[in-house]
Design brief:
The complex is a heterodimer of chains A (253) and B (379).
Chain A lengths: L5 E12 L2 E12 L3 E6 L5 H8 L7 E6 L2 E2 L5 H8 L2 E4 L11 H12 L4 H14 L15 H12 L6 E5 L7 H18 L2 E5 L3 H7 L2 E6 L4 E6 L1 H7 L3 H7 L7
Parallel strand pairs in A: 3-8, 3-9, 6-7, 7-8
Antiparallel strand pairs in A: 1-2, 1-4, 4-5, 9-10
Helix pairs in contact in A: 3-4, 3-5, 4-5
Chain B lengths: L5 E9 L2 E10 L4 H14 L4 E12 L1 H16 L3 E7 L4 H7 L1 H6 L11 H35 L6 H11 L4 H26 L5 H39 L2 H7 L4 H40 L3 H11 L2 H27 L4 H33 L4
Parallel strand pairs in B: 2-3, 3-4
Antiparallel strand pairs in B: 1-2
Helix pairs in contact in B: 1-2, 5-10, 6-10, 7-8, 7-10, 8-10, 8-11, 8-12, 8-13, 10-12, 12-13
Classes of the chains: A alpha/beta (253), B alpha/beta (379).
């Protein structure tokens, strides 16, 4: 991996809620063009880590570098420039319920640049087509199923063709077929647009299908207990916690 | 290469056919500039068939794909056709994913259709009729639940009732007192000018007393409670409704009406009359301040005059009215909360409706009371 360009560098990140330390001195790199998965059981700090990567929360210590910009100490201008390179799919899809799907997807376009209306409409259609929601732009979020809302959220997240897409539990609440479709879509976007993806999940099937590299967080260790190729970790890890997780076994007390 | 670097040139490549060679960046930051440049080349070309050569494109994103779709449509309008010719490897995967053929083939069907005005009015009337039926059903259920609660007082969640009396009554005391004081002050101040001219300063006590005890005290307390607590009930129950908490109560065998509505109804029913007493007191106090400061009326004279013009029924009728206002405020807040649907937007709409309906119902009820008391000879 040494020859690959580092896109995100996390150094000594420490996060705590009052006295409760969630992440302690966590460091890792995310390389350009890879699908990087953050794994771990419930309550280990996966989603918290994601919120710090995208600058929604300030950590107690450490830094998150995008090139030479540290998002923890970035100025408002630097942060705003960084956000243009991000797309985030939240767990629920987070579509704004007061507007149609099409208007939701067009929202970032209208925010960042004045484009011709027809071009906005076509761009929205292209993105909706990519996520399998062609011609559904007039639906209100309340009229859509959970899976559709999530795909709609993905269309909105990637409407600006971001360098990095963040996913918070993309398969949560989806049926197996829709989950597989979403995985395939993520792979297609990754290969065709070379978009770097940071995915937080605990769905093992999805991990083996999409992940280039994973890090595994542990609640008791307050940090990373394994890093590397998921298939190799499953077979060869020395850590019983990692093997137990990949083999869906309970650790003996 | 900067993010806006782009060049295009056109060459004739056959009879009635021309190719536009594009080089550089074709992405979000420069898409409008590229579009106008290519449109200019294509419309000025002496050919009806234009081919886009994208082999020289270094960076391409979805807005580039959208631009090509827009160009294709624009050129059809000037009787020209646009096709995509050779493409670079940087363009090919995205163009494939964007699926322009599908985009151009299937414009989104318009769902808007013309509706006859009779249809619109009919739909509106039917909706209102359904609303009225639902409201009537709700009132019926609430009355039944209330009767049940009175028959089985141990089944009422009294701890919740006490908490709600605190949050709707005691916590509202400072703002209700302040507003009532100011309203009393304003009434007295406005009348003071007229009374002074007539030399009838002392009648300020009758005026303030009657208007505060009969109308302003109960009304101001009720309006404040609608804005403060009726809206809170609608928002709280509405959020519970959309997050399926109300459904969870139902499937656990707990009636949402008994669990959520009845405690609120009892709490407001008890809290509002007490708040009204405070509103009366502070309203009179506001009037007294003006009487002493602007009209040279002494405090004993003020109260003596007031005693002569106000009887106990004036005070009791105001407090009694507020008891009914309380029922209306809680019922409206809870009704709109329970009928919430459609997410955050729905909660906002319910809250607005609960306040509008609450105040409307209070004013209607007040008018009925005034007329009723008048004809009963007690008003």
């Amino acid at each position: 991996m040494a020859d690959r360009k580092t896109l995100i560098r996390v150094e000594n990140l420490t996060v705590a809620f009052d006295d409760n330390v969630v992440l302690d001195d966590v460091s890792f790199d995310v390389y350009e063009g890879e699908i990087f998965v953050v794994l771990g059981g419930s309550g280990c700090g996966k989603s918290t880590l994601l919120r710090h990567l995208i600058g929604l929360r300030q950590p107690q210590g450490g830094s998150v570098w995008y090139g030479d910009v540290n998002i923890v100490t970035a100025s408002e201008r630097e942060y705003s420039d960084l956000l243009k390179r991000f797309g985030v799919l939240f767990q629920s899809g987070a579509l704004l319920k007061s507007m149609t799907l099409g208007a939701n997807v067009a929202l970032p376009l209208r925010e960042y640049r004045k484009l011709d209306r027809q071009m906005v409409r076509d761009l929205v259609q292209i993105k909706l087509g990519m996520v399998g929601l062609a011609n559904r732009g007039r639906l209100m979020p309340a009229e859509m199923s959970g899976g559709m809302q999530k795909r709609g959220g993905l269309a909105r997240a990637m409407v600006l063709d971001p360098d990095i897409l963040f996913f918070d539990e993309p398969s949560a609440g989806l049926d197996p077929i829709t989950a597989v479709e979403l995985d395939e879509l993520m792979l297609a976007i990754n290969t065709s647009l070379n978009t770097t993806m940071v995915v937080v999940t605990h769905e093992l099937e999805s991990v083996f299908k999409i992940a280039d590299r994973v890090i595994m967080l542990d609640r008791d260790a307050h940090g990373i207990i394994a890093e590397g190729d998921p298939r190799e970790l499953k077979e060869n890890s020395d850590d019983p916690r990692v093997r137990a997780f990949f083999n869906r076994e309970r650790l003996p007390e | 290469m900067s993010e806006n670097d782009f060049a295009a040139e056109i060459k004739s490549t056959g009879k009635d056919k021309a190719t536009i060679f594009m080089r550089g960046m074709l992405h979000f930051p420069n898409v409008e500039e590229v579009r106008s440049r290519v449109t200019e080349l294509a419309t000025n070309a002496n050919a009806s068939e234009i081919v886009l050569d994208l082999t020289g494109i270094e960076r391409f994103d979805s807005s580039g794909a959208a631009m090509i779709a827009v160009l294709m449509r624009d050129l059809v309008d000037c009787c020209k056709s646009l096709q995509i010719g050779e493409v670079s490897d940087k363009v090919k995967p995205l163009l494939h994913l964007a699926n322009l053929d599908e985009l151009l083939k299937d414009p989104e069907p318009a769902t808007w259709k013309h509706r006859h005005s009779f249809e619109v009015v009919g739909d509106w009337a039917l909706e209102r009729w359904n609303d009225a039926r639902q409201m009537l059903q709700y009132v019926g259920r609430v009355v039944l639940s209330m009767v049940f609660a009175l028959g089985h007082p141990t089944r009422v969640r009294w701890s919740q009732v006490i908490y709600l009396i605190q949050s709707t009554g005691a916590d509202a005391l400072p703002i209700v007192s302040l507003i009532s004081f100011l309203v009393g002050l304003v009434i007295a101040f406005v009348s003071a000018i007229q009374l002074k001219q007539l030399g009838a300063n002392i009648f300020i006590a009758d005026l303030v007393g009657l208007s505060v005890f009969r109308e302003m005290g109960p009304l101001m307390a009720a309006i404040m409670l609608t804005a403060r607590s009726g809206s809170a009930f609608a928002a709280e129950i509405g959020t519970m409704k959309i997050s399926e908490e109300v459904d969870a109560l139902t499937v656990m065998g707990i009636k949402p009406l008994d669990y959520l509505v009845i405690p609120r109804l009892i709490a407001v029913m008890l809290a509002l009359p007490i708040l009204t007493c405070f509103a009366d007191f502070f309203g009179i106090l506001g009037g007294l301040v003006v009487a002493i400061s602007s009209l040279d009326v002494t405090m004993p004279a003020f109260f003596q005059e007031m005693q002569g013009s106000i009887d106990s029924w004036d005070i009791i009728s105001g407090v009694m009215k507020s008891f009914f206002f309380g029922i209306l405020i809680a019922a409206a807040g809870c009704y709109y909360g329970m009928s919430t649907s459609g997410g955050a937007l729905g909660v906002g709409q319910s809250t607005t409706k609960s306040v509008v309906a609450g105040i409307f119902l209070i004013v209607i009820a007040d008018s009925i009371f005034v007329v009723l008391f008048h004809y009963l000879g007690v008003g």
